[in-house]
Amino acid sequence: MKSSKTVFTCQNCGYQTPKWMGKCPDCNSWHTFLEETLAARPAGGTARSISSSQSQPIPIDSIDIEQETRLLTEIRELDRVLGGGLVSGTLVLVGGDPGIGKSTLMLQALHAISMKGLKVLYVSGEESVRQLRLRSKRLDTISSDLLVVSEINLEAILAMVDKVKPQVLVVDSIQTTYSSDLSSAPGSVSQVRESATRLMLMAKKTGVPTFLVGHVTKDGAIAGPRLLEHMVDTVLYFEGDRNHVFRILRAVKNRFGSTNEIGVFEMKEKGLEEVANPSAVFLSERPEKAPGSVVTASMEGTRPILVELQALASSTSFGTPRRTILGLDQNRVALLVAVMEKKLGMHLMGHDLFMNVAGRVKVDEPAVDMGIVSAIASSFLDRPIQDGTVVLGEVGLTGEVRAIGQVDTRISEIKKMGFNRCLIPESNLKRAKKEKGMELIGIKAVSDAVEILF
């Protein structure tokens, strides 16, 4: 008999080495190596089971997909992020900080599906069935077709799926699941990889949509090897602060839909509630006639969202001014500050600069460049921007304002929210659809916008 082999595996990236190392040479993480025993697989193990499940290659145009329909979770924000519902056999990874609402969302989604008369299965490795019953009672998600079980053994879970035959499966969480074929502890790289692989094969073979709930590291990435994100079809991240009522569900990978869509939820006593109009929520507490505050429109997939950008420029007593940016790309803000100093003559190097996107939203679209410039200029000059004004446009290094996409969609949302004046790039003004009661002003350069606003 061949003896088992011992290797040291980085729990962050999966790098393996025959000896212990303090720092991982692959991901540069410290103290992440754990000793794992790799038992020799019997001949014809997992590899044979994979090959036996494969069919003969066929022409792609002969595959019938007319009857392929997506399964709706009846949670519109979740369906939007998924690309219109669940595809048969899809594997979805849901990550987020502890207490952000991952398990709550999964329980509410399964309950909504079970109300259609479909059988669903919730496998929890962190809660007992009594704890699940208490949480389900609080969330009002009681249904006879919603089956729950507390189990972490992978073989038992797969046998249960084969016996119950649910329409949707949730495994909460993938880091607590272990296979008895491996001797390493649950949550290790080898266990997470093995569990995800076998659940993926089960989902593709049976066509059962499967959700995997994943823990995240202190950096916000899903714990375990990056291979886990490559294996699944969709990766969803729950963003937000546990002390803040709003949560944002964002897709960072989606094989069956767009990765630009976001879903907005509000955490209440009865669980997560959809926010149908995020723009109204994010602008609800906007101060009136306050210098440094400006409204801009960002496209999140097919949905325009109005957000408030806040800037505070204050003189500094130190040699190097501070730059604290929340919700925006710090490098992009630094670039725009340099453009303002060169083209507008604003000496911002002697000022500390603080910027924030109200509502804890992250905006990384170039179309909000003019909003950033306007907010900084408003705070620097200590002059508020006229009420009812929205600023749009991408800024180039020479100070020109470039065209942006989907202007008509943005303008419709701007008018719906009660704004009556919008500054847009001059090139977009020629093709923009005229809205009654909406004043559209074209700008060619950042200097033009500053003259109009102040």
3D structure, described in words:
The protein is an alpha/beta fold and 454 residues long. It folds into 3 domains: 5-38; 70-276, Rossmann fold (3-Layer(aba) Sandwich); 281-453, Ribosomal Protein S5, domain 2 (2-Layer Sandwich), CATH 3.30.230. Helices cover 28% and strands 26% of the residues. The chain is built from 13 helices and 21 strands. The chain has helices at residues 46-52, 76-82, 102-114, 129-139, 154-164, 189-206, 227-231, 278-282, 330-343, 369-381, 407-416, 426-429, 446-453; strands at residues 5-10, 16-17, 33-38, 91-96, 120-124, 146-150, 168-172, 210-214, 234-240, 246-254, 262-268, 271-274, 293-300, 303-315, 323-326, 351-357, 389-391, 394-395, 401-402, 421-425, 439-443. The strands form 5 sheets. The chain has a 9-stranded mixed sheet with strand order 6-5-7-8-4-9-10-11-12, with helices on both faces.
Tell me the CATH topology of the largest domain: Rossmann fold
CATH superfamily of the largest domain: P-loop containing nucleotide triphosphate hydrolases
Number of distinct helices: 13
Q: What's the level 1 CATH class of the largest domain?
A: Alpha Beta
Q: What structural class do you assign from the helix and strand content?
A: alpha/beta
